What does this fold into?
Amino acid sequence: MTVHCCAECGEEGGVSLKTCKSCMLVKYCDASCQRKHWPKHKKVCKLRAAELRDEALFKDPPDKDDCQICFLPMPQKFFSCASLPPATISSVPIYDFARANEELENHCTFNFFSCCGKSICTGCIHSFAMTGNKKCPYCNSDRYKTNEELLEKLMKRVAVNDAGAICQLAKHYEDANETHQDHAKSTELYSRAANLGCSESHFCIGLKYDKAGDLKQAKFHFEAAAMAGHEMARFNLGVYEYNSGNIERATKHWTIAASTGNYIAMHELRAFFEREGGNFYGKRIVSRESIDSTLEAYNDSCVEMRSEARDVCIRVMLGGGTNI
It folds into this structure.
């Protein structure tokens, strides 16, 4: 049987044949032939589908989103100014381990502006604010409006299917006070944004399922977020695999996340190596060479995300300033 023939009846249909979407290995005349062939095909199909899923899951993630002002990649966590040389130095010693600021753990590294739909890093926002300008750093529209006006602008972007705006509205319903909190609406909006490719929404849905104890659905959404470049989703997948005894898969996830500048993943990798020597039941999982390589990629990524403006912003925030 060739791939140009229906796997069930053998009829040659050329371009009219429909490929099995799960494994991409066989083709069929129609859904009827596919259903008839399924008992013979399902084992191979599921095995190949899992292989394709892993290929997509463990390939290099897409680049981070850039700030629309400075065009530098935006980190998910703030890094300690003191942990690296000045931002003007491009090379960082491999064991000068850039560490995230625990004091700024819950601070967002960028803000979404509903007026223009752009995400701007806090370094640029702070620098812009220091000039005395209180407008949007990108589109120069009035920034400081009432909550009602801001929500109205956000709703306009939601109406045109702006995935970032939809995700922000979901967070609004999730984080609002008890009077305006609406978890059902939040979940609905996260799902809508996730269907538009928003990795943060997939991550937030994954957290909801994780909290509810549905690890299968949580893992599905974390995987979708990770493949779109979400570092924390990737880290969580590593935790799931580690807890399930799949140490090799766990370290793969952490290596990918660490290489993009995820501090927690880098910490877990180093802790595993130092604790177990990179071995698990006698099998070498992580070598010294791979740890060195990942550390180098991690530090390089951290350097790429740093700027003098971001360093200044961090120093202000650590000193008690909050006007970001």
